[in-house]
Protein backbone atom coordinates (compact mmCIF):
# COMPACT_ATOMS: atom_id res chain seq x y z
CA UNK A 1 0.00 0.00 0.00
CA UNK A 2 1.14 3.52 -0.72
CA UNK A 3 0.05 6.86 0.73
CA UNK A 4 2.19 9.57 -0.85
CA UNK A 5 1.33 13.06 -2.09
CA UNK A 6 3.48 15.79 -3.66
CA UNK A 7 2.12 19.34 -3.92
CA UNK A 8 3.49 22.66 -5.17
CA UNK A 9 1.62 25.82 -4.32
CA UNK A 10 1.65 29.07 -2.36
CA UNK A 11 0.84 29.63 1.29
CA UNK A 12 -2.51 31.34 1.87
CA UNK A 13 -1.35 32.78 5.21
CA UNK A 14 1.60 32.62 7.59
CA UNK A 15 2.04 29.22 9.29
CA UNK A 16 0.73 28.78 12.83
CA UNK A 17 3.53 27.16 14.82
CA UNK A 18 3.33 26.13 18.46
CA UNK A 19 5.04 23.88 20.97
CA UNK A 20 2.83 21.26 22.61
CA UNK A 21 3.04 20.37 26.31
CA UNK A 22 4.95 17.24 25.25
CA UNK A 23 7.67 19.51 23.82
CA UNK A 24 6.92 18.63 20.17
CA UNK A 25 6.57 21.46 17.66
CA UNK A 26 3.67 21.52 15.21
CA UNK A 27 3.09 23.91 12.34
CA UNK A 28 -0.10 24.20 10.28
CA UNK A 29 -0.65 26.10 7.05
CA UNK A 30 -2.75 25.97 3.92
CA UNK A 31 -1.28 25.51 0.45
CA UNK A 32 -3.16 26.93 -2.57
CA UNK A 33 -2.57 24.54 -5.48
CA UNK A 34 -3.75 25.42 -8.99
CA UNK A 35 -5.56 22.71 -10.92
CA UNK A 36 -3.98 21.59 -14.18
CA UNK A 37 -7.18 21.90 -16.21
CA UNK A 38 -9.47 24.81 -17.05
CA UNK A 39 -13.22 24.92 -16.56
CA UNK A 40 -15.67 25.54 -19.39
CA UNK A 41 -15.36 29.29 -18.86
CA UNK A 42 -11.56 29.10 -19.20
CA UNK A 43 -10.76 29.57 -15.52
CA UNK A 44 -8.33 27.42 -13.56
CA UNK A 45 -9.61 26.26 -10.21
CA UNK A 46 -7.56 26.22 -7.04
CA UNK A 47 -7.57 23.66 -4.23
CA UNK A 48 -6.75 24.75 -0.69
CA UNK A 49 -4.92 21.90 1.05
CA UNK A 50 -4.33 21.91 4.84
CA UNK A 51 -0.75 20.91 5.76
CA UNK A 52 0.62 19.77 9.15
CA UNK A 53 4.36 19.56 9.89
CA UNK A 54 5.93 18.16 13.05
CA UNK A 55 9.26 18.46 14.90
CA UNK A 56 12.18 20.24 13.30
CA UNK A 57 10.27 20.53 10.02
CA UNK A 58 7.54 22.47 11.87
CA UNK A 59 10.09 24.81 13.46
CA UNK A 60 11.70 25.56 10.10
CA UNK A 61 8.33 26.13 8.42
CA UNK A 62 7.42 28.61 11.14
CA UNK A 63 10.75 30.37 10.75
CA UNK A 64 11.06 30.55 6.95
CA UNK A 65 7.59 30.31 5.42
CA UNK A 66 5.16 33.20 5.05
CA UNK A 67 2.01 34.09 3.15
CA UNK A 68 2.51 33.90 -0.62
CA UNK A 69 5.71 31.82 -0.47
CA UNK A 70 5.90 29.12 -3.15
CA UNK A 71 6.51 25.78 -1.48
CA UNK A 72 6.65 22.09 -2.36
CA UNK A 73 5.38 19.55 0.17
CA UNK A 74 5.80 15.78 0.03
CA UNK A 75 3.96 13.72 2.61
CA UNK A 76 0.99 11.52 3.30
CA UNK A 77 -2.75 12.09 3.48
CA UNK A 78 -4.27 11.67 6.92
CA UNK A 79 -7.90 11.68 8.03
CA UNK A 80 -9.06 12.18 11.59
CA UNK A 81 -12.13 13.22 13.54
CA UNK A 82 -12.83 15.12 16.73
CA UNK A 83 -15.79 16.30 18.79
CA UNK A 84 -16.44 20.04 18.40
CA UNK A 85 -17.51 22.27 21.29
CA UNK A 86 -21.12 22.09 20.11
CA UNK A 87 -21.04 18.28 20.42
CA UNK A 88 -20.96 17.56 16.71
CA UNK A 89 -18.37 15.28 15.17
CA UNK A 90 -15.95 16.98 12.77
CA UNK A 91 -13.85 15.23 10.13
CA UNK A 92 -10.53 16.53 8.84
CA UNK A 93 -8.42 15.48 5.86
CA UNK A 94 -4.90 16.94 5.76
CA UNK A 95 -1.41 16.30 4.45
CA UNK A 96 1.26 15.42 7.00
CA UNK A 97 4.47 16.91 5.61
CA UNK A 98 7.49 14.63 5.47
CA UNK A 99 9.55 16.93 3.22
CA UNK A 100 9.16 20.66 2.65
CA UNK A 101 11.04 22.55 -0.06
CA UNK A 102 11.08 26.36 0.03
CA UNK A 103 10.89 27.26 -3.66
CA UNK A 104 10.64 31.02 -3.69
CA UNK A 105 8.92 34.01 -2.20
CA UNK A 106 5.91 36.02 -3.21
CA UNK A 107 8.07 39.02 -4.13
CA UNK A 108 11.24 37.66 -5.72
CA UNK A 109 12.52 34.85 -7.88
CA UNK A 110 14.89 33.14 -5.46
CA UNK A 111 17.59 31.18 -7.26
CA UNK A 112 18.62 28.98 -4.31
CA UNK A 113 15.89 26.87 -2.81
CA UNK A 114 16.03 25.16 0.56
CA UNK A 115 14.62 21.76 1.36
CA UNK A 116 14.09 20.03 4.67
CA UNK A 117 13.16 16.41 5.16
CA UNK A 118 11.54 15.21 8.34
CA UNK A 119 13.75 13.13 10.62
CA UNK A 120 10.93 10.64 11.00
CA UNK A 121 10.46 8.80 7.72
CA UNK A 122 9.01 5.39 7.00
CA UNK A 123 12.45 3.86 6.44
CA UNK A 124 13.94 4.98 9.77
CA UNK A 125 16.75 6.81 7.97
CA UNK A 126 17.77 10.13 9.56
CA UNK A 127 17.21 12.89 7.01
CA UNK A 128 18.06 16.14 8.72
CA UNK A 129 19.45 19.31 7.19
CA UNK A 130 18.85 21.58 4.27
CA UNK A 131 19.86 20.91 0.71
CA UNK A 132 20.45 23.49 -1.99
CA UNK A 133 18.56 23.03 -5.25
CA UNK A 134 18.94 24.98 -8.47
CA UNK A 135 16.16 25.42 -11.01
CA UNK A 136 18.12 23.09 -13.31
CA UNK A 137 17.69 20.26 -10.76
CA UNK A 138 13.88 20.45 -10.88
CA UNK A 139 12.31 17.48 -12.72
CA UNK A 140 9.64 19.70 -14.35
TrEMBL record:
<feature type="compositionally biased region" description="Acidic residues">
    <location>
        <begin position="131"/>
        <end position="140"/>
    </location>
</feature>
<dbReference type="GO" id="GO:0006260">
    <property type="term" value="P:DNA replication"/>
</dbReference>
<keyword id="KW-0238">DNA-binding</keyword>
<dbReference type="GO" id="GO:0009295">
    <property type="term" value="C:nucleoid"/>
</dbReference>
<comment type="subunit">
    <text>Homotetramer.</text>
</comment>
<dbReference type="InterPro" id="IPR011344">
    <property type="entry name" value="ssDNA-bd"/>
</dbReference>
<dbReference type="InterPro" id="IPR000424">
    <property type="entry name" value="Primosome_PriB/ssb"/>
</dbReference>
<dbReference type="GO" id="GO:0003697">
    <property type="term" value="F:single-stranded DNA binding"/>
</dbReference>
<dbReference type="InterPro" id="IPR012340">
    <property type="entry name" value="NA-bd_OB-fold"/>
</dbReference>
<dbReference type="Pfam" id="PF00436">
    <property type="entry name" value="SSB"/>
</dbReference>
<protein>
    <recommendedName>
        <fullName>Single-stranded DNA-binding protein</fullName>
    </recommendedName>
</protein>
<feature type="region of interest" description="Disordered">
    <location>
        <begin position="111"/>
        <end position="140"/>
    </location>
</feature>
